[in-house]
Design a protein that fits this description.
Elements (H helix, E strand, L loop, with lengths): L9 H12 L5 H8 L3 H14 L20 H14 L3 H8 L3 H10 L28 E9 L7 H4 L1 H17 L9 E9 L5 E6 L4 H17 L6 E4 L3 H4 L1 H10 L2 E4 L9 H15 L7 H17 L25
Parallel strand pairs: 1-4, 4-5
Antiparallel strand pairs: 1-2, 2-3
Helix pairs in contact: 1-2, 1-3, 2-3, 4-5, 5-6, 9-11
């Protein structure tokens, strides 16, 4: 496409060429009339003779040949070392006697520049899947977080002060002066829809089967209120999800339980990635002076995640846009 200050647009090039070829103007006269150089006017006249009006557009500046391009055998060696050994550009360059920048350019061209694109277990490029509609599959898991002592945890105030705050909170606990969550752990039970990435979460003080079942029941009802019927649920092989109570609850809800392969968390990768987003966007994003303050901030962050945060896996749209009832701001 012509730049903003171009002397000749494609339409003007065609006028110039027609004056020379069809109307018999000299190249010099046409160049002076359009205020361009002689070689420019001659070029567009030649293009018009060869290609007609179709030749008035811009051509790619890409060279016809690449004499210095990395030979294909070396490209195969780079790809092999990246996939099988998971080596970086510097290590690969040292093995093959090349520059690291050249290796990195090859990896970018082959879409292997990020190790996250390569499956850890098999070494092959990661295979991604997505179910065709909301509710066809939901992922469930538990994110374990340390409770924040009164005054702030070590991530905000440093390890020394964080330790003092935790000790003081424990002392107050023994005296019965604390209210709300105490030191220990918080268990965030999370549910995420495979197709839309819409998330549902609750915070509890344990990860027992009865708690997980209650979260699932409320999550199924929450999705039903939004026009989504849950068909399958995928979980890891934790005791709560492998229990008979979990299977019985899924049967009552009309849901088929599915489980990841042992020692294979990638199968449940969508919710594992959501946990990272949860930690970065809510759990560790700012200074909380108590666990109660952090827990109170979760509903607002979930609303932002579902309704306003662009999701790169679904075309940079918010997850709620893929739901049947996707009125912005309708749900809180």
């Amino acid at each position: 496409m012509s730049h903003a200050n171009a002397a000749l647009t494609p339409r003007q090039r065609l006028r110039l060429a027609r004056l020379i070829v069809d109307d018999g103007w000299s190249v010099s006269a046409a160049a002076e009339y359009f205020r361009v150089s002689y070689p420019t006017a001659a070029k567009w006249a030649r293009r018009y003779v060869e290609l007609g009006s179709e030749g008035m557009g811009d051509r790619s500046s890409r060279p016809h040949s690449h004499p210095n391009r990395t030979p294909q055998p070396k490209v195969k060696k780079i790809v092999h070392l990246r996939i099988r050994k998971r080596l970086g550009p510097v290590q690969i360059a040292a093995r093959l006697g090349m520059s690291a920048s050249t290796v990195h350019a090859v990896l970018v061209r082959c879409r292997l520049n990020r190790l996250s694109h390569i499956d850890v277990k098999t070494g092959e490029p990661a295979r991604r899947y997505e179910h065709e509609k909301p509710g066809a599959l939901i992922h469930v898991d538990v994110k374990k977080l340390g409770n924040i002592p009164i005054g702030g945890g070590w991530r905000s105030v440093g390890r020394a002060q964080g330790g003092k705050n935790r000790a003081a909170t424990d002392v107050n606990r023994r005296k019965g002066n604390n209210r709300g969550p105490l030191t220990g752990h918080a268990f965030v039970h999370t549910v995420i829809d495979d197709h839309s990435r819409v998330a549902y979460a609750e915070i509890h003080d344990d990860e027992r089967a009865d708690t997980a079942i209650e979260v699932l029941q409320r999550a199924v009802s929450w999705f039903a209120d939004r026009g989504v019927r849950v068909e399958r649920v995928l979980s890891d092989n934790g005791p709560a999800y492998r229990s008979h109570a979990w299977r019985h609850a899924c049967t009552e809800l009309g849901i088929k339980p599915k489980f990841t392969r042992p020692r294979r968390p990638q199968t449940n990768g969508k919710i594992e990635r959501f946990h990272r987003t949860l930690a970065e966007g809510w759990a560790h994003t700012k200074h909380y002076n108590s666990e109660s303050a952090r827990r109170a901030a979760l509903p607002a962050w979930l609303h932002f995640y579902n309704h306003h945060r662009p999701h790169t896996a679904i075309g940079k749209l918010p997850p709620i846009s893929r739901m049947p009832n996707n009125l912005a701001g309708h749900y809180s």
